[in-house]
Amino acid sequence: DLIYKYYSAVDSNPLSVYVMHPFWNSVVKILPTWLAPNLITFTGFMFLVLNFLMLAFYDFDFDASGQGHTHVPTWVWVAAGVFNFIAYTLDGVDGKQARRTSSSTPLGELFDHGLDSWACIFFVSTVYSIFGRGNTGVDVLTLYYILWSVLFSFILSHWEKYNTGVLFLPWGYDISQVTISVVYIITAVVGVEAWYKPIYGNFYYRDLFTVMILGCAFVVTLPMSLYNVFKAYRSNSLKHSSLYEAFLPFLSPVILFLLSTLWVCLSPNDIIQQQPRIFYLMVGTAFANVTCKLIVCQMSNTRCQPLSWLLLPMVLLVLLVASGVLKHSEGLVLHVWTGLVLLGHIHYGVSVVRQLSAHFHIFPFSLKKPSTD
Questions:
Q1: Is residue 284 part of a domain?
Q2: Among the listed ranges 159-173, 221-235, 358-372, which one has the minimum average pLDDT value?
Q3: Number of structural domains in the chain
Q4: Cα angle for residues 295, 298, 302 (degrees, 5° grid)
Q5: Do the strands 198-200 and 167-168 form a parallel or antiparallel pair, or are they unpaired?
Q6: The CATH number of the domain where 309 resides is what?
Q7: What value does the mean pLDDT of the chain take?
Q8: What does the pLDDT look like over 81-107, one tens digit per residue?
Q9: Integer CA distances (angstroms), 269 to 1, 61, 186, 274, 333, in order
Q10: Model pLDDT for residues 130-164, shown as the tens digit of each residue
Q11: What is the radius of gyration, based on Cα positions, of the chain?
Q12: Crossing angle for the helix pair 205-215 and 140-164, nearest 10 degrees?
């Protein structure tokens, strides 16, 4: 049986506490009370998906912002900035709407954090189009490792909760979302050509972009996560005394990172250069699936699963890539595998939503409860 452990979170980011929360408190007051929190969460997520699809249409290979290429239309950058800020705002008010309407549920927690884990790939890929690849941009392989630093930052927070019972919201999230929204609008005003110029010497805006993301991950998020877990250890409040059990949530993500990186390094067709967007989407969706399972374990107060089913076919794919068997069909195989990962993750999400809805007698997108007659 599913035993839900009530959601506990700490948000100490000054930007969030002094600026965004007062703003969100004002926004939630104008929302109709019949509007379900899960619908708010899902709508915000779809704005990020829309951004991803919009930039994929105009800049599928991440080269539109490069010199000598047809640039993304100005209105797209304006729309991207507005949509990103709307998504960020809706992500901030969904919980407030749930408390306002007394409709907080475990399904809401899964919706919020489960979709947040998937959102990582969409906003990282979309903001990449600002700089793109090429001489004035960021190499697609570099962006691959940047993506993993963002994914690593996300799962760190949930690793904290798995061990301490409290979700310490990362500071980097609020800073990055506000910055990204503003940069989209600036790009619409000054054009992508403005990012070609160095800030100082050979230090470009693309380098600042990279330093900011890596800095948030390894200078802010990682030390704070380790400190919070160490503090729980000192107070004897850790939920898992075994070192193996404490670090178990990292096993599947680390294996996924190793497998996907081996694919990149052993690819006979340099697949990350040929199909970067599809490869990012595959990695980000597989990671979201692993993370959602961790979130379910947190909610149900159960042991984290050591391995995800997605890893087994990934092992087979990497072996085929290394052997050269897929040399003439690697791109097609990547597209098919990405499609399967997407369908598998959606199926998993729908199945869990149905199970939680039936268990707690709730509708996913409504404040009404189903009849028990």
A1: yes
A2: 358-372
A3: 1
A4: 120
A5: unpaired
A6: 1.20.120.1760
A7: 89
A8: 999 999 999 999 999 999 898 888 878
A9: 48, 16, 36, 7, 12
A10: 998 877 789 999 999 999 999 999 999 889 888 88
A11: 21
A12: 20
Band of the pLDDT at 372, cuts 50, 70, 90? very low
- Domain range for 287: 13-360
pLDDT at site 265: 96
pTM value? 0.92
Q: How many residues does the chain have?
A: 373
Phi, psi of 204 (to 5 degrees): -100, 170
Half-sphere exposure of residue 48, counting CA atoms within 13 Å on the CB side? Answer: 24
CA 354 – CA 358 distance, rounded (Å):
6
Residue 288 one-letter amino acid: A
Q: At what angle do helices 106-131 and 205-215 cross, to 10 degrees?
A: 160
